[in-house]
Amino acid sequence: MSNPDPVEEPHGVGVAALVRQRLGECSPAERRVARALLASYPAAGLGTVAALAERAEVSAPTVLRFLSRLGFGGYPEFQRALREELAERETSPLTAYRAAERTGAPPEGALPRAAATLPEAVAGTLAELPQGELDAAVRLFADQQLRVTAAGGRFSALLAHYLVLHLMQVRGNSRLLPASPVERTDMLVDVGRRDLVVLFDFRRYEEATLALARNVTARGAKVVLFTDRWLSPVAGLAEVVLPSRVDSPSPYDSFAPTLALVETLVAALIDRLGPVAGARLKAMEAAQQAFGED
């Protein structure tokens, strides 16, 4: 059977993201393989074919058919891609800096590097995002009966805050999870089925974010995840996963593509809410003037 798409490309999606993209094309048995893999990713794919088949309660040939549908030539190629992805997931600014130091600074300078890297990363992120995932996210955010709580990590908390500021203006009932333990506990103690928790988690994924996702989903809350192309472990718990590229002109991963994705989501949400968003914006403007806020 021929491979429908090349797997190993410099800016290709990660294996987990590829699985999610192709899920709708799979047979019921193949979907069981996909769910078993995502539920314990990537560990479930690093054992034997027989072990993955047993975990998914399917036959070994079903596993191989599923991998062929993803574009892999066989199980060894699939595992090689997983191992390479694991190495990429562990990359830190320091290891990226040392790698650049060994090869020497690129001659073109930071500005040309940024001009070459960032637009491609943004365009690739938007092109690779399945329309169905964006639509599912917009449906959740448009449900004003759902209370939105957003949280991020050391750097990505900035993105969570940015999203919440927009949601406050166009749909309300949205808040940022605070850093203070007492305030966090107060905000989370009543989380349940009428809550939508938005998490931002990028490589060198934070254990606290995974623990939070486990807790809120156990209480019945829905999770939307913004992550990178390798997918945070939270992906196995999330209702919707929105991955971004992180290609950057520096040793630090870029959040520019994720910011573009956040703004795309906000634009799509305003489109869906229509006059409701307009009325909310008008009310916010009036309130700002009444309370003397700039």
TrEMBL record:
<dbReference type="InterPro" id="IPR001347">
    <property type="entry name" value="SIS_dom"/>
</dbReference>
<dbReference type="GO" id="GO:0003677">
    <property type="term" value="F:DNA binding"/>
</dbReference>
<dbReference type="InterPro" id="IPR046348">
    <property type="entry name" value="SIS_dom_sf"/>
</dbReference>
<dbReference type="InterPro" id="IPR000281">
    <property type="entry name" value="HTH_RpiR"/>
</dbReference>
<dbReference type="InterPro" id="IPR047640">
    <property type="entry name" value="RpiR-like"/>
</dbReference>
<feature type="domain" description="HTH rpiR-type">
    <location>
        <begin position="13"/>
        <end position="89"/>
    </location>
</feature>
<dbReference type="GO" id="GO:0003700">
    <property type="term" value="F:DNA-binding transcription factor activity"/>
</dbReference>
<dbReference type="Pfam" id="PF01380">
    <property type="entry name" value="SIS"/>
</dbReference>
<feature type="domain" description="SIS">
    <location>
        <begin position="137"/>
        <end position="275"/>
    </location>
</feature>
<dbReference type="InterPro" id="IPR035472">
    <property type="entry name" value="RpiR-like_SIS"/>
</dbReference>
<dbReference type="InterPro" id="IPR036388">
    <property type="entry name" value="WH-like_DNA-bd_sf"/>
</dbReference>
<protein>
    <submittedName>
        <fullName>MurR/RpiR family transcriptional regulator</fullName>
    </submittedName>
</protein>
<dbReference type="GO" id="GO:1901135">
    <property type="term" value="P:carbohydrate derivative metabolic process"/>
</dbReference>
<keyword id="KW-0804">Transcription</keyword>
<keyword id="KW-0238">DNA-binding</keyword>
<dbReference type="Pfam" id="PF01418">
    <property type="entry name" value="HTH_6"/>
</dbReference>
<dbReference type="InterPro" id="IPR009057">
    <property type="entry name" value="Homeodomain-like_sf"/>
</dbReference>
<keyword id="KW-0805">Transcription regulation</keyword>
<dbReference type="GO" id="GO:0097367">
    <property type="term" value="F:carbohydrate derivative binding"/>
</dbReference>
